[in-house]
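$ fold --in a.seq
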Amino acid sequence: MILDKMDFFYNTTADSTGYLAANEVLGSNASGTGQIRDLASLDNFGGSRKFYLNIEGVSNLAGGTTPTMTINLCSDSAVGFATAKVTNYTTGSIAQANLAGTRTKILLPDGVKQFSRIEWTVTGSPTSGGTFKAFLSAE
């Protein structure tokens, strides 16, 4: 599969100059959110093309007390996520040693609104790890 940089959900980490780093690795040992994507740019050929959300674990959580991570796809009709945020998909709780190498591919659920982002919740106070990539792919 060939991926374009526009297929990825990006992090919101600023580099040393204050600009957002174009880094497709999301997550950390703390809860957070990725950048907002405008899904209006997806060309689904009049509804006949299906898209999938792909999540690939990069590094396990380490340290803490039995840490876990939950990854969510959220969307809203407004870019600021202040109108009617919806959680369209959740991975459920992923144990600390099971994140790296985990691959999930799901059909983009019905009801995903125009603006979307990836959010993750971490429990158990891990000290490092907890990274993953999330991207969209066509069928």
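$ fold --in b.seq
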Amino acid sequence: MRYQLAETDRKTLLREARTYKDLSEVVTREFRGQKAWILFWEDYRVDFARFSENKILWPENQPADKKFFQEARIFNEQTEVYIRNENREILTGRILKEEAESSSQKETIYSMTAEHFMWGTQFRNGFVQEERGMRYHLPGIENPEGRAWGYQIIQYYVPDPEDGMLLLADYRLAGLFRISEQGKQILD
């Protein structure tokens, strides 16, 4: 089987590992002056928070509790930081950040955006929910009417040096969207 590479933007993908003391340090260090979504897992809940205007908007004003915190994915269009709580004292993170093509780049990176739908079509009392009881917050969203909600993933591919086939190198969350009467709208 043969594949032909499509014309696409060449990008540099920065990948780093870092440590942080808490989620506030992550967002202020990596996303200062930007907006970002925070998808976080605790022992008893999974939910979204929002970083905007250099502050975190927590669902129902309940911040993630370090005692119960497991992991988080903090993301926007250009960057994702994936955080794990290793020992309840320190957070370790992997950063994926897209940058313009660099002349010192080692290999060509190709990207593709995929969209996936989330459960829930009703927005009530700050929650997106569905009939079977699953629900989650989308803090800071105005005019929440939507028929469907979803998220975008950017997948990064590198050509195999032997045969040129594209191999999945990495992926990251890149954004949330809603489908309404007006069509698809990116939630920034």
